[in-house]
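It is worth pausing here to work through a concrete case rather than discussing structure prediction in the abstract. The textbook approach is simple: state the sequence, then state the predicted structure, then interpret. We follow exactly that order.
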Amino acid sequence: MNKRDFPKIHFYDQDFVDIYDKTWAWLSSFWIDTKLKENANDGYFVYPQDKNGEPVLSNPTDAQITQKIENATVDQFESIFSSFFLVYSNRNFPANQNLDYFYNKQEANGAIRWKYDLKTGDAVTTPENPEGIGLPLFAWAEFNLYHKSANKRRIKDIMPILQKYMDWVDQTYKQPNGLYSAPVSAGTMFNSPRKDCYYSVDFNASVAINCAHMSALGDILNDKDLSFQYKRAYFSLKTRINSLMWDAESKFYYDLDKDEQKLSEKTIAGFWPLLAEIPNADKADLLIEHLSNPQTFGTDHPFPTLSAESPNFNENGNGFCGSVYPAFNFMIIKGLEKYQRYDLARECAIRHLYFVLEALQPADGKKGDMYEAYKPCKEGYALMDGNSNYPRVHYLQTVGLSTIALMIENVIGLSISLPRKTVDWIIPNLEIMGIEKLSLKRNLITILSNKSVRGWEIQMESEKLYYFTINILDQKKKTLPIPSGKCSMLIDKL
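Step two, the predicted structure:
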């Protein structure tokens, strides 16, 4: 496929379209082959660095990356999260490539480490994280890949790997009380004020997310025993997180110390339970209120990684003392979807994208870029004392979640499932927007809303039949079979 054949998006704000297009244009510079000499289709999606950890970035117009790359790592967190936007590349960039790298590294005891040196293939560990555990979210990523590819054979092939991996996680980190105690660094929040944390809320919620999706993958394979095994594990962990980590007074989920006492800091880790569907509807409403509260997580740029009321909060970001990280915003927005809070999810996605845009095109005319982290209370990239390499620039590994995945799924509002042959479109307000030539396996689809002389009209084009559900302003909802070829529908006639 020609590298120009990415799906096109339409949106009334052309800047959003431009940043979406720019992300795809820059991406090829980060697809590095194992010889570490140039970008290649059969390589891996990594952030290139030299031997001192300095980023090695080619000009976006260059086809080649310099040979100075010596310190690139294949990162589990980046690989899992990037798969959520690579699925929209029309197979220009295989979303499963990095995930398969990790599966091929699985050890006899089931271990898969959080990072590997791309040059040597060796696992990267630290004294704080000697086993090299990352957040166990492979099943979540695979469930999403399945709905974008309908590749049931892949689920069958990888399921033994995922089971063995979960067995290793259980044997290594599960405690007698049913919770998991893993190094805080597994959650990537390197300088977050989480002293004395023994049971981290993000790791435990991630295990719950993985168990829920392992059960769902078992259902896809029609394996009732597998499905029940992980469903039971999910509900068991859900009960423990709710009973031990939730604080009714402050309406938040907290890390625990070794004695199962709640710690005092509200960190962004407390929102992972939303994605795991751990709180009931009432608790979820209380937790979600924090996202609009300027005293905690409702800062101008949503969402800071530390509550604004914390004495450790830093308006310049200072790593996980307040910076806004696209991957964590994606996690929260997907959590909001679990509770049908689509309006808030879209509003926050758009606000976040405006800040990403401003840093790419600063008002002062200086050269901008896409960054690893942003300031929570004003425009610009985050700062960190004594670290000139922070934040990483040109950092598409997670910014693509904002500029591509959130753009398609939350700003435009499309939700696609190939195995179900369904496309859901949630439109909070009528605007000129849509997507053109999105590849669904071997089926290119186009869905656009336009205003014509007859009123608002949805125009569609497809090579095969699929089922289209449109939900407008929560007032009109209809599911229709869309035949092959071109067709259109008038919204007023629905």
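Step three, interpretation. Residues 152-173 form the longest helix (22 residues). The longest strand covers residues 443-452.
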